[in-house]
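Bench log, entry 3. Co-assembly request; chain sequences pasted below exactly as received.
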Amino acid sequence: MKNITDILIDKINEVQNPTVAGLDTRIDFLPESMTKNAKSAEDKAKAITEYNYKLIDALKGIVPSVKIQSAYYEMYAHYGVKAMNDTAAYAKKNGMVVMADVKRNDIGATAEAYAAAYLEDSDYDYITVNPYPGYDGIKPFVDAGEKNGKGIFVLARMSNPSAAELQNLDVGGEPLYMRVGSLIEKWGASVIGKHGYSAVGAVVGATNPTEAKELRKRFKTVFFLVPGYGAQGGKGADAAASFDEKGGGAIVNNSRGLIAAYKNEKYKGMTYYEAAAAAACDMREDLMRALKDNR
Amino acid sequence: MKNITDILIDKINEVQNPTVAGLDTRIDFLPESMTKNAKSAEDKAKAITEYNYKLIDALKGIVPSVKIQSAYYEMYAHYGVKAMNDTAAYAKKNGMVVMADVKRNDIGATAEAYAAAYLEDSDYDYITVNPYPGYDGIKPFVDAGEKNGKGIFVLARMSNPSAAELQNLDVGGEPLYMRVGSLIEKWGASVIGKHGYSAVGAVVGATNPTEAKELRKRFKTVFFLVPGYGAQGGKGADAAASFDEKGGGAIVNNSRGLIAAYKNEKYKGMTYYEAAAAAACDMREDLMRALKDNR
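Structure output for the full assembly:
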């Protein structure tokens, strides 16, 4: 079975764009025309699904991947979960690599159930996972991924302001996120693809370029998923810290900066999906410039 | 608004049983008669819902609370999520305190969406939360809980074998779980109820009585949710380490030891719900004896 991180890297190279579009689709991102008759949770979930479909139509060929943030779907109970899964199926059908940003974590037996939910017979290629339970909470995801050609991204150093509260605690002379990085490297040692990166990646925020550079330098087989670009304050130059010297090894997430770009003065007059495509092209340019400067 | 931990403690006192029944309802726990025609995810989710309803009918009046483990429902996509929410509604209607064991965690804006999903207009009284993102990933849950009379349990020291891998790392002379305990105490300081315990509790495994005793001694306002009793190896005496000197301050989870008790030789000949009730009475006795010995 082909390594999913090889597939992701090939798709990134194909479109020359290491960007993942974050479908953190909040109902207030939608134009009023799409929501004015959406009163119930079911209606809202359907409107969000329709919005996502058009975004996918516009973004395929420009970005290689979408990341669906579960929280914005769980808000609408089972209707929302159906919207999330329908969105995943549509993105998959359109040739995109699909990430479920669920940050699941539990003891072994329960992690097996989560792995069954997201990494067996599903349209997700990757899910995000929280490392707090340690290896027996991670192994079921790694095993299911290996069996089914899927992967995981484990939280290492997050992008939010208080992430350092636990993640930067000193543990024997290094910050906790570095220790977690070592574990991620070890957990993925058996699933390294032909491009040299494993199917067990790390989440490393663009808001902390110094930490990202350290992690990048030390863990050469770990592919990074980089949140925090755009609305959270990270710029191309910050995100570039997560890339290797050849401009590979990472993919940068942008959510509202793409999917709600039409609310930005810069893209005025465009539809939301035209604006998303235009913003994705602008982001590609910003990243490519930063990666060139980074070499 | 009444503090949810006060409500929980009052219910525990009413039935004299600090037990929460874990509805980690795996399809293979169900008798064959209930599953032989359940082929689709929708059928299976419905069978699980029916199983849960009868368990709730049998357990109410014996145990004060149920904890629903999300993973076993997410396996059945949106059908499973509906089963989970239907189960919560039924338990709530029957006067039980309802916990969603979802271990959610994310950056602030996304944690707000999760808080909206589980702590606004829902039948859940508590959810479990992972501390890895630090305070801005926790605050939305604390705020929503304060507004709506609900609470959270934050993972401190889990019950699984590899939990120590991160949670026992030394951070400045104390293990990480102790540091997390301090944070939990601080995060809940504004929501302490009349019984002296806050609406921000901690998950502390019964499989680590030494750690639990330390945590109990130091954090007098933090209520503990104690997994690991039964199938994971914890006994009444181990669970007792999480209780205060008056036999309060904690609630002990048991999942398959109750909900699949009918598969145990001891309860042979009983229906699954009769066996669950009998096992819950046996567990109450075990805990009460241990708490007496503990004083």
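The radius of gyration of chain B is 18 Å. Chain B touches chain A through 56 residues (CB under 8 Å).
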